[in-house]
TrEMBL record:
It comes from Dactylosporangium roseum. The gene is malQ. Keywords: Carbohydrate metabolism, Glycosyltransferase, Transferase. GO terms for molecular function: 4-alpha-glucanotransferase activity. InterPro entries: GH, Glyco_hydro_77. This is 4-alpha-glucanotransferase. Its EC number is 2.4.1.25.
Amino acid sequence: MSARAAAHGVATWYETAGRRRVDIDPAVVEAVLGLLGPRPAPRSRAGGAAALPEPPRTWGWMLQLYGVRSARSWGVGDFADLAAFTRWAASTGAGAILVNPLHAVAPVDPLPASPYSPSSRRFVNPLYLRIADLPEYRAAEPALRAQVDALRPAQSTAEGLIDYGGVWRAKRAALELLFDAGAASGTEPEPALRDFATYTALAEIHGADWRRWPGELRRPSPDAYAAAPAGRVAFHAWLQRRCAEQLAAADEAAAGMAVGIIQDLAVGIDPGGADAWTLQEVIVQGARIGAPPDAFNQQGQDWGLAAWRPDRLAASDYRAYRDLLREIFRHAGGLRVDHVAGLWRLWWVPPGRGAAEGTYVHYDDAAMLDILVEEAVRAGAVVVGEDLGTVEPVVTTTLRERNILGSAVLWFTRDAGGAFRPPAEWPANAVASISTHDLPTAAGFLAGEHVLARAAAGVLGRDAKDEWADAARERAALLDVLDAEGLTEPDSTDEEIVLAMHRLLERTPCRIVLASPYDVLGVVRQPNLPGTTDQYPNWRIPLPLYLDDLIGDARMRQIADLFDRR
């Protein structure tokens, strides 16, 4: 079995972060091998560019687009809000805007909130459409416009949680009115869009999980195309065309930036969703990806996502992977690859097993990277790899050799003893930030909100007293490095400490430095609390200011002026 596993890239053991060997249950290895074909994946003939050009040295903002609401959007930040923020940022000298994944999510009600569990990574979430910018709205008769306008949800307070279900029901009704009033479908959709629109139309009838559909509909086929209502297929194809147009307008707003808009690529897909239906020949069936047990997640992690099947992907010359990258790069100046170590290996959990009962499956990393770099060079884009946490040394080394930027986050940039590193010791080949969507905000860290939130959600890993003691030690360690850099005084307020954190970032040699409005505005709750579902309002926390007030806020301008000195 060991030889067969090695030939297929299926691990029989792995090494923990503490260099402890863990042997995989042979039954798990057999189960994973059973998900692959009898022949190992052919080695790559991909070729491609060896490395990206040197990324520019610049700064910018990291956004959760849904939270960047304006008085003109319908309760959730949209593509027009992204364009408006980007124009403002460019006017202050910013060179990059990193946004959360814009992928299409499952077409169910209520609409899923997480952008990291997409139905499709190639197509876009129409939740982000600006209704008033649609050509059909602008051309509509006054009576129809009034009917559409009446559907707009009442404005909530700036602090109110985002209601994805309510917003999408209102937008969908408005979009259907405009489409039915004469939005001609135009040309026949190209095959990939046809299949996505067919899946979405069938999902409205049979549910979002294609694995539970009638047997004859469980793959793209003449039967499936015939069963999907033609009008709904045309509607969903039209939505994607309009999404592409509005995303292109946002990308155009970034035309003068050093980098522009950096889109985020989720690590996997919903196994019952659109991509898993349309691309099932190259998507592993049954296995879910996640992470093995570690000090923070002793039971391991099951993300419930499907991933590429390496043997079939290689046999198809990586066509689906290349198409995905090419589509995203059409409207982006850069790409952040979530869990970039997944280009080397992913933790597969076979059917019927728990998160800890998986093993690593290796990919042809040379091929995956060749294609990624080639497509980025073709698009003139930069690439950022999310390499936080435990990654093999080869990942960090290879990213540097390929001029792919890594990720440097203040909370994680420490020495072997746990002390925060001074800015001069941060890596140059990286994008620097204070936090991420999965970590405490600046104000939240100082206030211990990450302890309070996890305690309230019931996901603390140990006694609350120990958590509070660690939080106090970490705050003291942060103040030590800020004090050593001459950035704080003994009586500095939390707001002054947050400013000092940004000043520390500005001193690093990192190629790109990003600020988050959540940090700048003193928001204490983080966008997402890992390990929770309904216990915490994940992905539903908006910025406390509407867009016009946000870009006029003195604190935002202060950080822009600070970073623009780089």
